[in-house]
Write a structure and sequence with these properties.
This protein is of the alpha+beta class. 35% of the residues lie in helices and 29% in strands. The chain is built from three helices and seven strands. Strand 5 and strand 6 form a beta hairpin. It is elongated, with a radius of gyration of 17 Å. 28% of the residues are buried.
């Protein structure tokens, strides 16, 4: 490779690493319960996880395309509903109004602009899931921040940041 091309790739890689570090910082700022894990061999995804009594558990992965995937489970339904209602997604499949008034079920928003999918499951036993695929970092941060605020407002969990 020509020296100028090699230098350009090195510069790009440096900026990409800085961008990923900034994305991780934004995700952790929005949801301080997250902690980093070592990368798997052969896997470029950056993984963050949490597990706390009363808050559920799960992971956030930052893929090598700069998109976030979130998989949280055992999250109290009222926290999910409050967070989603605060985000004010333009449309949720199967919801006829605010999620705080919705029965247990799966509610989905697919963003045509970004290709992201947002799935919120209100469980029959009071705990559900938040599953988000291929979200932009600003969208992922918005969801995580809304969840963190909902935890605080609902008084869920023993530690607050």
């Amino acid at each position: 490779m020509q020296p100028a091309a090699l230098q350009a790739v090195e510069t790009w890689e440096q900026h990409w690493n800085e961008t990923q570090a900034a994305a991780v910082a934004a995700l952790k700022t929005a949801f301080p319960h997250l902690h980093g894990l070592p990368r798997h061999v052969g896997c470029n995804d950056i993984r963050l996880e949490y597990e706390e009594a009363g808050l559920g558990g799960g992971r956030v992965c930052l893929d090598d395309e700069g998109r976030a995937n979130i998989e949280f489970g055992q999250v109290p339904n009222e926290v999910i509903a409050h967070a989603v209602d605060e985000i004010r997604l333009p449309y949720l499949d199967y919801a006829d109004g605010p999620l705080c008034e919705a029965p247990p079920g799966t509610y989905v928003y697919e963003c045509e602009g970004s290709g992201a999918q947002f799935e919120f499951v209100l469980g029959a036993l009071g705990h559900g899931q938040v599953i988000i695929s291929f979200a932009t970092i600003p969208d992922a941060v918005a969801v995580l921040d809304a969840l963190e605020q909902a935890f605080a407002e609902q008084g869920v969990g023993e530690t607050r940041h």
